[in-house]
Design a protein that fits this description.
This is Phytocyanin domain-containing protein. The protein is of the alpha/beta class. Helices cover 35% and strands 22% of the residues. The protein is built from 5 helices and 8 strands; from the N terminus they run H-E-H-E-E-E-H-E-E-E-H-E-H. The strands form 2 sheets. A 5-stranded mixed beta sheet has the order 2-8-7-4-5. A 3-stranded mixed beta sheet has the order 1-3-6, with no helix packed on it. The protein starts with 5 loop residues before the first helix and ends with a helix. Bound molecules: 2-acetamido-2-deoxy-beta-D-glucopyranose (NAG) (2 copies) and copper (II) ion. The site of one 2-acetamido-2-deoxy-beta-D-glucopyranose has 6 residues, from helix 3.
Length: 156
């Protein structure tokens, strides 16, 4: 059986150890490649995703055409907002999800929410459980294990 070069194996092993020990916050680009635009199904986009406290929502859009308004559930149903609502209009806006529960976002331009589905609602869950308390220790332990493996592999 042909085997991968030892250095590549060692690199892979070290990467896996590092990845598995860090609980990372996720970035979600709203709408993926399509971004924030007319007539995209954001309900469908959101349905298979798990959003957690600490994750980021990134809204990418043409800011001459759209914006992002943080609204509440009633306003979301109604596609309406008031001057008190926070409006983002950069075109590249990051929203860090700070609390659990439902969040609602709409485009504030006339008809975009009501007639063109520019509305996103998500349910934010608690932060992912932190790694075990002894993670620093076990990380070092795993790393030294991997190093021994790597050295063994290189000289094999
Ligand atoms: C949503 O915001 C509007 C405007 O501030 C307010 O009148 C309404 O009661 C709010 N609804 C909820 C469910 O918080
Ligand atoms: C619903 O939208 C209409 C039209 O924009 C507005 O007049 C009304 O105040 C809104 N109601 C709520 C509860 O936001
Ligand atoms: Cu819009």
């Amino acid at each position: 059986m042909a085997s991968a070069p030892p250095t590549r194996l060692a690199f892979l092993a070290i990467s896996m150890v590092l990845l598995s020990s860090v609980a990372m916050a996720a970035d979600f680009v709203v709408g993926g490649d399509q971004g924030w635009k007319l007539d995209f199904d954001y309900e469908e986009w959101a349905q298979d995703k798990v959003f957690r406290v600490g994750d980021n929502l990134l809204f990418n859009y043409d800011n001459t055409k759209h914006n992002v308004v943080k609204v509440n559930g009633t306003q979301f149903q109604n596609c309406s907002f008031t001057p008190e609502n926070e409006i983002l209009s950069n075109g590249k806006d990051t929203i860090t999800l700070k609390t659990e529960g439902k969040k609602w976002y709409i485009c504030g331009k006339p008809t975009h929410c009501a007639d063109h589905q520019m509305k996103l609602t998500i349910n934010v869950q608690a932060e992912a459980p932190a790694p075990a308390p002894s993670s620093a220790h076990s990380l070092m332990a795993s790393l030294s294990g991997v190093l021994i493996f790597a050295i063994a592999a290189i000289f094999a």
